[in-house]
TrEMBL record:
<dbReference type="GO" id="GO:0043565">
    <property type="term" value="F:sequence-specific DNA binding"/>
</dbReference>
<dbReference type="Pfam" id="PF12833">
    <property type="entry name" value="HTH_18"/>
</dbReference>
<feature type="domain" description="HTH araC/xylS-type">
    <location>
        <begin position="214"/>
        <end position="294"/>
    </location>
</feature>
<keyword id="KW-0804">Transcription</keyword>
<keyword id="KW-0238">DNA-binding</keyword>
<dbReference type="GO" id="GO:0003700">
    <property type="term" value="F:DNA-binding transcription factor activity"/>
</dbReference>
<keyword id="KW-0805">Transcription regulation</keyword>
<dbReference type="InterPro" id="IPR018060">
    <property type="entry name" value="HTH_AraC"/>
</dbReference>
<protein>
    <submittedName>
        <fullName>AraC family transcriptional regulator</fullName>
    </submittedName>
</protein>
<dbReference type="InterPro" id="IPR009057">
    <property type="entry name" value="Homeodomain-like_sf"/>
</dbReference>
């Protein structure tokens, strides 16, 4: 399995959402979901223009969105949507930093932006006039994406930046929480270490960092300090992040490779396949073998 295969086949989030061209997706939606979406991280930035009533579960905070709003999501913080009203409409775009060419302009990350940074307020409420302005920009993205213009993505990037600047004009007043800068740095360093271990591309590749203590040692801090920072910033324990990422990778390996269950277990850091079997079943309700049969049978 090629380490870059996920780019050529489309950028896939932990919840299965796919960016078809590998870097960008834009869409108009209405009443797309009736039940809460999974509470997980997605592997891309997302801007959602929303009108209706829903509750956004973001980190350890619940935010009621009961009027037109823009919602900004980053790849490090888990979130989910819970519908409250029966009807709603909106637009969204998903993109990677690679698509926006962030690193060509500076060493800054979108995670440093006031709208996307962890610990900030992800929701920007809009007036009717502001909503109409942003909706028009989304419509321009959709129309441009449908063209054959060779430089269309350069045009789309400008529209995305205009949406961001419209939100910055509104300037949300109060952040949801104010984690210390040290907590943010520690959390981002932990997340980077976690992601650097994936994807698993060969059975001989084994996770070197398996537990919270391993990450704490690598970051040269006490494990309690790491746990406190990660929970403060994301609302979830360090072990939960590790567990969810391992399960997500296990599902990908079960679905996309012909490796044995034992090979997958060892690659994911389990000393014995039985340990992996018990872990996977506890988290998903299925054994790895059953999951592999289900995914194989659905192809």
């Amino acid at each position: 399995m090629d380490a870059n295969a996920h780019k050529s086949q489309g950028f896939v989030g932990c919840d299965g959402t796919k960016i078809e061209n590998g870097n960008f997706k834009v869409q108009s939606v209405s009443n797309q979901w009736k039940t809460a979406t999974p509470y997980i991280r997605r592997d891309f930035y997302k801007i959602t223009l929303f009108t209706g009533i829903a509750r956004l579960h973001y980190a350890d905070t619940g935010i009621l969105i009961d009027r037109p709003a823009l919602v900004f999501s980053n790849p490090l913080v888990p979130y989910s949507w819970e519908p409250v009203s029966d009807t709603w409409t909106g637009n969204y775009c998903q993109f990677t930093e690679e698509f926006m060419n962030i690193h060509e302009r500076s060493h800054q990350s979108f995670q440093d932006s006031p709208l996307f940074k962890i610990g900030g307020n992800p929701v920007c409420f809009l007036s009717a006039a502001q909503y109409a302005t942003v909706e028009a920009l989304f419509q321009k993205m959709i129309e441009e994406e449908a063209t054959d213009y060779i430089h269309k993505h350069d045009v789309i990037k400008n529209y995305v930046n205009l949406v961001i600047h419209e939100a910055l004009r509104v300037q949300p007043a109060e952040p949801v929480s104010r984690p210390t800068s040290a907590a943010v740095r520690i959390t981002m360093s932990f997340m980077e270490l976690l992601e650097k271990q994936f994807p698993i591309v060969h059975p001989s590749q084994t996770l070197s960092l398996k537990a919270a203590g391993d990450y704490a040692k690598s970051l040269a801090i006490h494990v309690n300090h790491l746990n406190h920072a990660v929970r403060e910033v994301t609302g979830k324990a360090t072990t939960v992040h590790i567990r969810e990422r391992i399960i997500a990778e296990a599902k990908l390996l079960l679905r996309n490779t012909d490796w044995s269950i034992a090979d997958i277990a060892y690659a994911l850091g389990f000393d014995y396949p039985a340990y992996f079997n018990n872990f996977f079943k506890k988290q998903t309700g299925m054994t790895p073998r059953s999951a592999k049969l289900v995914t194989t049978g659905s192809n």
